[in-house]
């Protein structure tokens, strides 16, 4: 089984912790197994470093899928 992940930035709208009502952004990590998207993790309020750690943990097999 091959794993890979991609980080992207998405724009969000609405209230945020800074009190601004304007657009903001957050990192999102798309998780793939065998080149198929299996899960997307939204990371509101998290840093690029945190998103990079998610990618590394997924690729190495340390992280599992979240199940509702």
What would your notes on this structure say?
This protein starts with a strand and ends in an 8-residue tail after the last helix. The model has no long low-confidence stretch (mean pLDDT 89). The relative contact order is 0.26. It has one helix at 48-60, and strands at residues 3-12, 24-33, 36-43. With 68 residues, it is an alpha+beta fold. Strands 1-2-3 form a three-stranded antiparallel β-sheet, with helices on one face.
List its traits.
68 residues, alpha+beta, three-stranded antiparallel β-sheet, 3 strands
Strand content: 35-45%
Major sheet attributes: 3 strands, antiparallel
Q: How far do the termini sit from each other?
A: 23 Å
Order of helices and strands: EEEH
Helix content: 10-25%
Number of strands: 3
On the 0-100 scale, what is the average pLDDT? 89
Unreliable runs: none
Helix/strand-derived category reads: alpha+beta
Q: Quick one: overall form?
A: elongated
Query: What is the rounded Rg?
Result: 14 Å
Strand order of the largest sheet: 1-2-3
């Amino acid at each position: 089984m091959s794993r890979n992940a991609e980080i992207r930035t998405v724009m969000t709208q609405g209230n945020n912790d800074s009190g601004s009502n304007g657009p903001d952004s957050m990192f999102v990590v798309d998780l793939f197994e065998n080149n198929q998207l299996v899960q997307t993790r939204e990371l509101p309020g998290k840093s690029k470093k945190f998103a990079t750690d998610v990618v590394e943990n997924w690729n190495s097999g340390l992280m599992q899928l979240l199940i509702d």
